[in-house]
Structure formats: structure tokens, C-alpha cells
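User: Could you walk me through two proteins back to back? I'd like the raw sequence and the C-alpha cells for each, with a short line separating them so I can tell where one ends and the next begins.

Assistant: Of course. Protein one, sequence then structure:
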Amino acid sequence: MERKSNASGYVLLEALVALLIFSLGLLGLIGFQAASMKIATDSQFRTEAAMLSDELIAKMTVYNLSNVATDFASPSGAQFSAWLNNRVKGASRLPNAQVTTEFTSVPKATSTTLVVKLNITWSVPGSTTGSGGREIAGAYETRALLF
């Protein structure tokens, strides 16, 4: 009494489906890893920009307030250009970093009170998009009161 089985190859088909499900899960895990690396890199650049802005505001605070707007307002100012070249472009990890400052006086305050708006931008590595090759820039902006 021999019986013929109609289920030949069923185990092979189950193995292939299991392999497919496992492969899709593995690809999803790799995608999560890539996204997490991008977020970690962005966080590192934002932390570096925050530390640079804190350092520059500290330098402005201890500097003579009567000259702070001229010496730190543009890259042509002596103190600002020295800090920009030595610290930002020379020692920071921000690619293609640019720093801009804007000073405004505070009405109804002392004559030497200033608000400084500090903006740091950088190029995000590997961010060229499309055929135009436009880079995406990261940005960090802060404001501080100098008196």
C-alpha cells in the first residue's frame, strides 16, 4: 500500500518564505541603523555649534562693550576674525562653518546694553541632492543680552 503525497516541496516553500521574511526584517534593521547614524551626526554638529556660540558670547561678554559691536560684528573685526580663523575654521568639526552676528541696542535699558543674534551655519556632509547638487546646510541660532 503505497500512498502518493501531493505535498512534495512544501517544506522548501516554507523555508523560502521564512528566508524572505527574515531578509525584509534585516533590511528594516539596516534602515533604522542608517537613520540613527544620521541623527547622531546631526546632534554632534548641533552640539559643536552650541559650544562655539557659547564661547563667542563669553568672549563678547568679557570684551569692552564700547567696541564689541565693531570688533565682533563682521569678519573684518580684529577679535572676530581671529576667533573665526583659529577656532571655527581651524579647530572645530563643523564643515564649511560660517558665523554671522547682528547687534541691536535695547530700548529702555542702559546705553551699553546690546542684544546679539548669533547664527552658525555649516554644510551637512553627504547631503547633495538632485542633479543640481545643492547642499543642505545645518543652522544654529541663538540670542544673548550683553550688558
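----
Protein two, same layout:
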Amino acid sequence: MNPTALIAEDEPAQRESLARLLREHWPELQLVAECEDGLSALEALQEKLPQVVFLDIRMPGLSGIKVARAAAQLGAHIVFVTAYDEYAVAAFETGAADYLLKPVTPERLLQTIARVRQRLTQPARADLHQLLEALDVGLRARQSQTSLKWVTASLGDTVKMFPIDDVLFFQAQDKYVRVVSAKDVAVMRTPLKDLISQLDPETFWQIHRSIIVRASVIERVQKDALGHFHAKLRGHSESLPVSASFQSRFKSM
């Protein structure tokens, strides 16, 4: 039986490139899911039970580290895909997981494929938990250094500084991103995908391709007559759409 794998990478170009390289260099590998965020990866992991998971460490929704914890419990073999060399070195030195540095090259991928093929003949490493704890500490330290404290946005003819604690949600619209607080609505040019990497994923959740919302202000999520989900915020009149790939976040609410 051919081995199965899942890819979780929030950048479409990098996700498609890795899938193409795997099909080219490991043709017998069956890609059962290609996910754009941690939540959909977790859902696909539980449904498809892949033997190998290729995980970006930093993803919206849930980090790759959290998905890896679930994958390890299911006995999957982990390959981290990361732009951060310190994470890769830690993973490689313990031998508990393999890694690919971005951008992924065919030469490096071939080395990884050889190692993963060998590992598929053996049980998943029992010491993966210790590695994931170390990676989680490193990721949180990096986030604390890079997390936004203020955002600058235009309010009419005025440029205003918004404390990040005042922001309810960000919403991409055309070439701009709306910055919505309890009192103001302003616009900024920073792309939403760049904002995601600078926001604390425990505080701000992506609920739609175009929306990042402060989790603590979500009052409820409800389905309309057409089967579409919307998030209602406390003390705010707007109802925000929740796309299918992010709905699993609210299954327990």
C-alpha cells in the first residue's frame, strides 16, 4: 500500500510547490490533503490519518506545533517546513522529526524523502513530545518579540495610532484593510497576510480569508438560512462571515 501524506502551508505558492515536488520525486506518495491553515489541517489529520505530515510551523488558526502534537498521537511522522533555521536545527539534532527549510529545494527534499522512507519502517519516535515543547517555547518567544503593539491607519484625512488592544477586527477590502475598534473604523495598506504573522494567534483568530478577529469579542456563531456561518461580536453591530475552513474552531462553542 502506498504511503499517505498531508501538507499544511498557508502560503498557496509554497504549498503548491511542495506538492509538485513531492509528486515528482516521490510519485508513490499519496497526498490525501493540502491545507491552508492549522484548523483545516487538524480536521484533515483526524479524517484522513496520513502517515506523514508536512507542517509549516507558523500558520493561522493553529500553529504547526499544535497540529504536530495531534499527529504524533496518531503515530504520524513529522516533517516541519520552516523559514526559521533555529527550529530546523533543533528538530534535526534530536532526530525526533525531519525538516525542510524554505524555499524547499529538490536536493534537500530528496534527502528528507530518503529519511522519511526509512522512518516509515519504524514506529514514530517517542521523544517527539520533548521536541515540540522546546519548539513551542521558541515560537512563543519569537512572537513576543515581533507581536504588534500599535497599528497605524488612516481615519479620513488623519493618520491615527491604534493600540492593538483596542482593535476588534481587521478586514481586507480591495487594496485596503479595515481596522475596526469600538469607536473608529480606519484603513491601512498592510496586507492581511503580513498582519497575521505579527499578531498573537491566541488573541486574534482568522475566521475568513479576509478577516482576523479578536477572539474575546466573539459572542456567538450562527448559521443563516443559506447555511452560511456568521460571527456576532459583543457590543458591535457588524456580523462577520466565517468560512468553511475555519468553522471547526467553533464546534465546541
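The chain has two domains: 4-145, 150-250.

Let me know if you want the two compared in more detail.
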